[in-house]
Write a structure and sequence with these properties.
The protein has about 850 residues and is an alpha+beta fold.
Length: about 850
């Protein structure tokens, strides 16, 4: 047997044997993480290695570093298999059994097509390899130690629920992932072919989607590190590769203090790492100019777009910008431009049929929650850009690396990788921060424009700076060395501290995330899954509704805020209908109307809230649960209580009995009739008027809790939306502190606060009346009493504070003016309504 045959047959046969053992449950005694890893290897990594062997293109640093490339090829190959089942009219879940032979086919291709001699690899020094492995292991440890977050504020319930529905239906693109009656509006264009791939890993490993979701995040994060190292290696060998690996670990999504690396299983995050691999392959193709190097790049482009369609937008931006950069750099030389263009066109031709099918199937952005302009920053009237906050939210202090490196990248543009860093940074800057471009793109892309900072490879930027630091030190350029060191320190000091806390005190992160985790009521969901009839439609609050498809077989009537499909024109209506149906003071007729409209067969009341969840439209709290439960208990014929434990109650709805109920609209304790003597203070067009404000006590010490009550009046019906109340406490700066111009007063105040280690402003935000009685329902003859509580922060400076109140109607990502970022007289500078004196705890 030839060496090539042996190198192909051994992994192929090993994969077949492992797949057979998994399929027949013979590995059930092994830990879940091992089973999931085995299933990932069989379905994705082994076929990916096979295609990489068949293509035979040189990788960025040896076979082990190219494991990330194999992930991309494997994702693409599994996606092709899933699409084939769709074309044949078969449930994609047949690949759980027959996918193992499908995964073996690439090794037959490698047997016939692999080059006789392996191409020379860019072997890394041993020390660099060890540093990269250490970073990869830490990435996996981080994911395994803390787990993928599954709070109602993350996308995990969305994705896990979709995978669960895929397994139940055999449909790789289920329109009913959450709503039984959604129809075409339930098809989500954001979900590609990776979700059914995860479902197949679940089926092959015989593990629950939640278990697999968490395990895959820990398994994929190390490959992300390898892909980052592969791109960075093009900047300067071993040191650059190691710096890129650690740069990814420390800076991705802002660093280990955020959850983003632990979300490596998300389709968006998977596409991020496969895009790094694809870009690396394209840059290598510009150097080697071979058929195999082009095939390597095209295959990774396919894998990226199969994971998430946003990859197509990313490549259009990155390759387009790089092409322009090559034209400028080469001054009319077209060799590199032609090579890049043909490679990009080949990748585009391969993914275009899939993109066109997805667009015809599901692209219809008509969900008002998604399409409403958001995340915008007005520089001046008519000049709007994407808020600078998007860059900070996704990159943290690492964003400093990009403007600080532009000149150096321009000087090093003879290297395609440096030119890529330069042109991508400039392109992202144009797309986000040039007003005419934002005005042109915003109606089509909406809040996707805020995702463009993810195109900036912070790991490669770190690697470039580290190499530049070494080179400057070697040639004795002390001033340059010091400047680079300062930039690196400013960019990485915070992420390093976050990383240390993440590894040394993971319990704090678990506690913080646990407060919002949907697993707090997993026992109730498990009971619902076991006991309620299959096909039940559950009526509940948005946060609880979001978790039902994640852990049960059932459908719901509403989801959280931005997490419904962009196609769903009824998303906001669903949320508001659920609010009205479960309103403790609503007439029975309204509840019956909502039950009939959405086909609800069960109700889940969740009272396990330490504090109201941070939602945009409706945030139920513990008091709401008590009142809602009392209302349903008053009509046992219509609402049969079937389960109750630890402030979580489940009812079966008897629609016929519900239709017979009349009345039921109780008096709301927070309403009174408007009186002739009520004063009205206008806060702005399209907002309610402020009638009165009370807060007690009027003097407090740091740590005290204040209780307040605001009375509102709506002179005319107001449209539904996300309204928020801000109660702000403004104090003065220390005596003798110079005043600043109003335009920069916020920046000056924050500087003084840092200098004195105390605060001169604090604030409380809330939904009016918790959203349970939405502003869209306030009648002109009513005055609404809106109560709130706020603790005086421990670091607040003693002194006199002016209490101001404002209400705003704002989307999920608020739109601001530049003035709002720099001046204390910002959008939340409300109406002065009271005064508060603060003294230090223990003082007089």
């Amino acid at each position: 047997m030839s060496e090539r045959a042996r190198h192909c047959l051994v992994p192929m046969v090993s994969g077949l044997i492992a797949g057979w053992l998994l399929t027949n449950g013979a590995l059930g005694v092994l830990p879940a993480l091992v089973r999931v890893a085995a299933a990932l290897v069989v379905l994705v990594l082994l076929p990916g290695f096979g295609w990489r062997r068949a293509i035979g293109a040189p990788g960025p640093g040896g076979a082990w570093l190219a494991s990330g490339w194999s992930l991309g090829y494997g994702v693409a190959w599994l996606a092709i298999g899933i699409l084939l089942t769709r074309m044949l009219g078969l449930p994609f879940t047949v690949l759980a059994r027959y996918g193992v032979p499908w995964s073996a086919l690439p090794w037959l291709a490698a047997w016939y097509w692999a080059p006789a001699a392996r191409p020379p690899a860019r072997v890394l020094p041993r020390a660099a390899g060890l540093a990269i492995v250490a970073a990869a292991l830490l990435a996996g440890l981080h994911g395994a130690q803390l787990g993928t977050p599954v709070s109602y504020g993350t996308d995990s319930p969305d994705h896990i629920g979709t995978v669960r529905r895929m397994l139940a239906s055999g449909d790789a693109f289920p329109p009913d992932a959450f709503f039984r009656d959604a129809g075409p509006a339930g098809t989500d264009p954001r979900k590609g072919l990776w979700h059914p791939g995860v479902a197949l890993v679940c089926a092959l490993s015989h593990d629950d989607p939640l278990v697999v979701w968490r395990a895959l995040a820990a398994l994929l994060a190390p490959l992300f590190v390898l892909n980052a190292a592969g791109l960075a290696a093009l900047l300067g060998g071993g040191l650059a590769a190691a710096a890129g690996a650690w740069g990814l670990l420390l800076t991705y999504g802002g660093g280990l203090g955020t959850q983003y690396l632990r979300e490596a299983v998300f389709a968006t995050k998977l596409a991020d790492q496969l895009a790094l691999a694809a870009i690396t392959a394209v840059l290598l193709d510009l150097e080697t100019h071979t058929v195999r190097s082009r095939l390597a790049a095209v295959g990774l482009v396919l894998g990226t777009v199969a994971a998430h369609v946003f990859g197509a937008i990313q490549f259009a931006v990155v390759f387009g910008a790089l092409g322009v950069g090559l034209v400028v750099r080469d001054r009319g030389g077209w060799t590199a431009v032609r090579r890049l263009t043909l490679t990009a066109l080949a990748g585009g031709a391969l993914v275009l049929p899939y993109l066109a099918w997805r667009a015809l199937q599901s692209y219809a952005p008509n969900n008002i929650i998604h399409t409403e302009p958001q995340g915008l920053l007005e520089l001046a009237p008519g000049l709007t850009i994407i808020s600078f906050g998007a860059v900070w939210d996704w990159l943290g202090p690492a964003w400093l690396l990009f403007p600080a490196s532009l000149l150096a990248w321009a000087r090093a543009a003879s290297k395609p990788v440096a030119l890529y860093l330069l042109t991508t940074t400039l392109a992202v800057g144009v797309l986000m921060f040039v007003p005419p471009v934002v005005t042109l793109l915003q109606p089509s892309l909406g809040y996707l424009l805020m995702r463009f900072p993810w195109l900036l490879p912070s790991s490669a930027a770190v690697a470039f700076m580290v190499v530049a630091l070494r080179d400057a030190w070697r040639v004795g350029r002390r001033l340059t060395t010091a400047a680079i060191a300062v930039v690196l320190l400013a960019a990485l000091a915070g992420p390093l501290a976050d990383a240390a806390r993440a590894f040394t005190a993971p319990g704090r992160v678990r506690v913080a995330e646990g407060a919002n985790s949907v697993e707090r009521w997993a026992d109730a969901l498990a009971w619902m899954d076991r006991t309620l009839p299959y096909g039940s439609v559950v009526l509940s609050d948005p946060a609880t509704s979001y978790s039902v498809p994640m852990l049960t077989r059932h459908w719901v009537t509403a989801l959280v805020d931005q997490h419904s499909s962009p196609n769903d024109s009824l998303a906001l209506t669903r949320i508001l209908d659920a609010r009205d149906a479960l309103d403790p003071y609503a007439p029975w007729a309204r509840t019956a109307q909502v039950v009939r409209r959405w086909g609800a067969t069960a109700i889940a009341l969740n009272g396990r809230w330490e504090r109201a969840p941070e939602l945009d439209y409706w945030a139920p709290d513990a008091d709401w649960y008590d009142a809602a439960r009392t209302r349903l208990e008053s009509a046992p014929a219509a609402f049969e209580r079937v389960w109750e434990h630890d402030r979580f109650t489940v009812y079966v709805v008897h629609a016929a009995a519900l239709d017979l109920l009349t009345g039921g609209g109780g008096a709301r304790p927070f309403l009174r009739a408007r009186r002739a003597g009520d004063r009205a203070h206008r806060l702005g067009a399209g907002l309610p008027e402020l009638v009165s404000f009370r807060i007690s006590p009027s003097a407090a010490t740091s740590g005290d809790t204040l209780a307040g009550c605001i009375e509102w009046h709506a002179p005319r019906p107001l449209p539904p939306g996300s309204y928020r109340v801000a109660v702000r406490f403004d104090g003065g700066l220390p005596p003798g502190t110079p005043a600043s111009p109003a335009a920069v007063s916020k920046l000056w105040r924050k500087f003084v606060e840092k200098l004195h280690h105390e605060r001169y402003r604090f604030r409380e935000d809330h939904l009016p009346v918790g959203g349970a009685y939405g502003i869209d329902r306030w009648a002109p003859g009513e005055v609404v009493r809106d109560t709130f509580r706020i603790a005086v922060p421990a670091d607040v400076a003693p002194g006199d504070y002016v209490v101001k109140v404002i209400m705003t109607r704002t989307p999920h990502y608020p739109n601001l003016r530049l003035w709002d970022l720099t001046s204390d007289a910002d959008v939340l500078d409300g109406l002065p309504v009271a005064a508060l004196r603060v003294t230090r705890a223990g003082g007089r």
